[in-house]
Amino acid sequence: MDEDHYNTARGVQKVLSNYKDLQDNEINKLTVAHARKIQHFRSQPFHVAEVFMGAPGKYMELKESIKSFQGVLDGKYDDLSEQSFYTVGGIKAVIAKAEKIARESAP
């Protein structure tokens, strides 16, 4: 495990751990938003779950996964909704889903 992988994994663990303590405390709203996005992003469709999810599994390279989670921790995707992170593959799929949601909700 390289240093980026370790630091990102520890950052994800810290945010999720803090999320349980913070919940929806207004002061810590950004940390809570990051934790929710991380939880949703971890729900990517796995190949072994295709039968249960009714959708094909997605594979994400480890480096892409680390970079994506680090982007969430750094606030790079703060403008994307939590819903965009749910049951998608990589971060490109998250961005595409966010754009689709925005188009569909536009008047």
From TrEMBL:
<keyword id="KW-0066">ATP synthesis</keyword>
<keyword id="KW-0375">Hydrogen ion transport</keyword>
<dbReference type="GO" id="GO:0005743">
    <property type="term" value="C:mitochondrial inner membrane"/>
</dbReference>
<keyword id="KW-0139">CF(1)</keyword>
<comment type="subunit">
    <text>F-type ATPases have 2 components, CF(1) - the catalytic core - and CF(0) - the membrane proton channel. CF(1) has five subunits: alpha(3), beta(3), gamma(1), delta(1), epsilon(1). CF(0) has three main subunits: a, b and c.</text>
</comment>
<keyword id="KW-0547">Nucleotide-binding</keyword>
<dbReference type="GO" id="GO:0005524">
    <property type="term" value="F:ATP binding"/>
</dbReference>
<keyword id="KW-0813">Transport</keyword>
<protein>
    <recommendedName>
        <fullName>H(+)-transporting two-sector ATPase</fullName>
        <ecNumber>7.1.2.2</ecNumber>
    </recommendedName>
</protein>
<dbReference type="InterPro" id="IPR024034">
    <property type="entry name" value="ATPase_F1/V1_b/a_C"/>
</dbReference>
<dbReference type="GO" id="GO:0042776">
    <property type="term" value="P:proton motive force-driven mitochondrial ATP synthesis"/>
</dbReference>
<keyword id="KW-0472">Membrane</keyword>
<comment type="similarity">
    <text>Belongs to the ATPase alpha/beta chains family.</text>
</comment>
<dbReference type="GO" id="GO:0045259">
    <property type="term" value="C:proton-transporting ATP synthase complex"/>
</dbReference>
<dbReference type="GO" id="GO:0046933">
    <property type="term" value="F:proton-transporting ATP synthase activity, rotational mechanism"/>
</dbReference>
<keyword id="KW-0067">ATP-binding</keyword>
<dbReference type="InterPro" id="IPR050053">
    <property type="entry name" value="ATPase_alpha/beta_chains"/>
</dbReference>
<keyword id="KW-0406">Ion transport</keyword>
